[in-house]
Structures are given as structure tokens and as C-alpha cells.
Amino acid sequence: MMSKLKGTLWSLLLLSIGVVIGGYLFSQSQPRSLLAVNRCQDCLSAKDLAGLLASAGIQKLPDLIPFVVFETDKTIVIKNPLTEAYVDYIIFPKKDIKNIGEINKEESSYLIDAYSVARHIIDKEKLSNYQFYTNGPGFQHVTYLHFHLLVQQLDQTDHQIRFDFLPHYNSQVEKP
Questions:
Q1: Domain extents in the chain
Q2: What's the confidence (pLDDT) of residue 45?
Q3: Arch. (CATH architecture) of 2-152
Q4: Distance (Å, whole) CA 1 – CA 18
Q5: On the CB side of 92, how many CA atoms lie within 13 Å of its CA?
Q6: Are the beta carbons of 92 and 77 closer than 8 angstroms?
Q7: For the segment 72-109, what is each residue's pLDDT rounded down to a tens digit?
């Protein structure tokens, strides 16, 4: 009986600690449809979970983020280590914004800073052949606003720059 009570108390203590830590980590995150039982079209989607984790990491644990190349008080930049054919700087606002279509007036300073940071990298690296973009919800792999600053490596055979490496560059998109 005493062993069962002790186990129950430990379980409640660990649950309480988990709730407190989760509350701290996700306190500044926008809600995502992880457990939308009554409208479960995209519940538990990998991109929403990735966005939630990105939000917690960027806002609460920025010192643990790998591959950081530049940071301001409103923006953090990482260099994507998974790309070989091109350089991919990923620029994240330090405010949890799901996509560009959901930004409000108070959050616009985060966009201005992200653009200024992109300009800083372009100047510092003396870039001229690059693309700078963000994806809308239909193309996002992570539900967290971020920008890609892509620099294509020079094709050694004909010395031309090519941008057809983008995952949806040649996508068939219906035009209005």
C-alpha cells in the first residue's frame, strides 16, 4: 500500500514538473492543431510539430541551436548543413509567426529585422547570385515563418548559375 502511494506521488510530481517545463517552453508559441479531435484534417502533422519545437527552441533555448552564423535580438540565422549543391541560410524571426499571411502590425519589426539580416549576409559574403524567399502554408515543411537565402554554386561545366534545384521550382501550380 505504501509503495503504491509512493509511486503515485512520484508520478504526480513528475507530471507537475513536465507541465511547468512545457508551460515555460511553449508560453510564447502560437497554438498549432496537434490535438484537434473534432476537425482532425491536419492534427498531429509533422510540420506543425516541427513548428512548435522550432518556436520553443528559438525563443527559449537559442544557445542550443546548431549551425548559427548570425543573430540579432529579433532574428537568428543558421546555415543548413544538409545542402551540397548550394548554400542555404535559413533566417528565423525570434517571434513565433506561422507564415507571412498571419503577420500583424506589432510583428512587422521582426520582418524588417529579418530583411536587414539578409542584407547583412549578402553584403558580408558579397553575394549577387541568390534567391531570398519564404513559403506559404501549402509549401512549408515547418509551420514557422522563416526565409531562405539560397546561393547556387557555379556549374563548373558551363559556368552558369542555376536555380532549378528548388524543390518546387518547376511545380505545376494552377494560375488564377
A1: 2-152
A2: 78
A3: 2-Layer Sandwich (3.30)
A4: 26
A5: 25
A6: yes
A7: 999 999 998 888 768 899 999 999 998 999 899 999 99
